Amino acid sequence: EAAVLAAAEEAGEGFAAVGVEGASPFGESKTDGEPSSALQNVQQLFFRRHGLRSLTIPGSVVFRDLISLRVLSLSHNELVDIGPIADLPALQELNVNNNKIRDLSPASQCETLEVLLAAGNRIVSLDGFALPNLRRLSLFSNLLADFDALLAVLADLPQLESLDIGGNACCEDPSQRCGLIRQVTTLTELDGDPVQPMDRQLA
C-alpha cells in the first residue's frame, strides 16, 4: 500500500526489487534479449535518485515482462516519458514524484492502480485520465492551471479518497478547495488535512 512506498522512500533506497536478483534493471545488464522468467515474479521495484531519463534503455528491463508488479517507485529521477508503465497489468501503487513528467496518461492504462504519487513534475493537464480504483492521488507542485478541467476529471474518479493538489495555479484561491470538496464527494483528505463534516456543509 501507500505505506510501502513511504517507508521505502524514508529508507533512502536506490534500487531494490522483490523477487529478482542481479544488477540494476535500468543498466545494460541483459545481453541475450530474452525475457527473464524472474521478472514475472517481481512484485515491488524501487529505482530512485539515479538520474534515470528513460524507461526504454536498450538492454534494460522490459516492462511487459513485469506481469506481477504491484509497487513501482521511480521518484527523484529525470523522467519525462512514462509510456512503458502502460504495460503493467497488475500495478497498484506508482511513485513518480520529482521527475519532469508532463503526461500521466500512460498510468491511466493501469486499471488496477490505487495509489499514484506524481508531485513535483511538469503536468499541465489530466486529459484522458480515468482510473476506476484510484484511492490516493498526489499532484502537488505541478503546472495545472485549468480548475474546471481538473474538477471534471477528479469528479469521475469514483474511489478517490486522498488528494494533494496544492502548489498548482488552479488551486491558489481558497474557494477552490470548497469546489473540490463539493464536487469530489468521496474525498476524506485534501492536501494532508481531513475533510470534516463542517467542510462539506460550508462547501
Please characterize this protein's 3D structure.
The chain has 203 residues and is of the alpha/beta class. 16% of the residues lie in helices and 13% in strands. The protein contains four helices and nine strands; from the N terminus they run H-E-E-E-E-E-E-H-E-H-E-E-H. A nine-stranded mixed beta sheet has the order 1-2-3-4-5-6-7-8-9, covered by helices on one side. It is elongated and about 55 Å long. Residues 1-15, 18-23 and 28-32 have low confidence and may be disordered.
Keywords:
203 residues; alpha/beta; nine-stranded mixed sheet; 4 helices; 13% strand; elongated
List the helices and strands and how they pair.
Layout: H1 2-10, E1 15-18, E2 44-47, E3 71-73, E4 93-95, E5 115-117, E6 136-138, H2 147-154, E7 162-164, H3 174-183, E8 189-190, E9 193-194, H4 197-202
Parallel strand pairs: 2-3, 3-4, 4-5, 5-6, 6-7, 7-8
Antiparallel strand pairs: 1-2, 8-9
N to C succession of SSEs? HEEEEEEHEHEEH
Question: In angstroms, what separates the terminal alpha carbons?
Answer: 30 Å
- Class of secondary structure makeup: alpha/beta
Shape: elongated
Unreliable spans: 1-15, 18-23, 28-32
> How can the largest sheet be summarized?
9 strands, mixed
If you compute it from the alpha carbons, what radius of gyration comes out, rounded to the nearest whole angstrom? Answer: 18 Å
How much of the sequence is in beta strands?
5-15%
Helix content bin: 10-25%
Mean pLDDT: 85
- Would you count the extended β strands for me? 9
Largest beta sheet: strand ordering: 1-2-3-4-5-6-7-8-9
Query: Helix count?
Result: 4
